[in-house]
Amino acid sequence: MNSTKKGMDDKKFNFYCSILIFLISILLFSILTSRMKNIITANSGREIGFYGAVLDYGIPALPTAFTEKDKVEKHQSFKDNMLNILGIKSKTSLSIIGKEISYLGNVSGEKDDCRLTMRDPENVFDKFSLNEDQVFEQENKVENNQPVKNCPVYDPKLKKKLSNNPEVLIYHTHTCESYKPNVISSKDKTQNVCAVGEEIKKELESKYGIAVLHDTTVHDVAAYNKSYERSRPTVEKYLKQYKDFKIIIDLHRDSIENKDAVTFNVNNEKVAKFAFVMTRKNPHFNKNMEVVNKMASISNKLYPGLYKGLFCYNYGKKFYNQDLNNNMVLMEVGSHVNTIEESKGTGKYVARIIAEYINGKN
Question: Which fold has domain 135-359?
Fold first, then answer.
């Protein structure tokens, strides 16, 4: 009798547990649905697009209320809204995955001849570090995609006698990051980021008297995931030899697929935009950011729209070596969809900005 009663009690207990779990599931679903609705209403104003997409993904045979336009947009809006529910800007987020891990290919779903929209202009799932606990992205306050004309590239007032000691150090943690028409990664230093660094060096030395040490050591072939470990001794070697530099640039390129987001028209010339990637937890962050903010301000004044924006990690990989010096920055020039000529074209504008920073009164 007791065992029978115990069995009935167990069944009741299991039944009530099932009811409780069911009610909790309904509550969670309601909260999630409410969250979805708020996001859709706030961000797109098209509830039918999202809910229709949910039905269409889950039950493809079920007729939905899509217009022809909806059918074209539904997949993108579904992805965007699902990522928004998680607190992620889809364009920013998906770009990050493709950025430093370019061999993953096009993760944005866009065509190969476009690139991962680096932040729409607002997207960057940065390739540098996928396991960051927190990332922060700040678009440039000067939003300008219109052509800029009559912007002097060279200012003779900034020229001085060339120093014997280098004031600028340029190196490349991901030395093989390349541009079109070349492959996405190449040791050819006339087609990869080394060519951009060399252009900046040539401009600074010949036009502004600023000596540049440009190191083109390949750090990313033997072990890509240990690129920062391999480039760190390179920086340390030069810091030991020269003690300090006015600015140290780890020069990269992005992997954004949307070319419009990283290309700028200045003086009737298409050039690649540039951006900074920094680490907030490194002990020199505040000093590093003084360099970034001054260069961004100069760029916005001279060539509004050329500077794309700032992207921050907490730690990055070994702080991207920014913990080694107050004047360390990681700069990205263009993306793999930019041509080498567009990216080298940016070199003379970046050189002018650096010259204003070092030789000017800013």
Answer: Aminopeptidase (3.40.630)
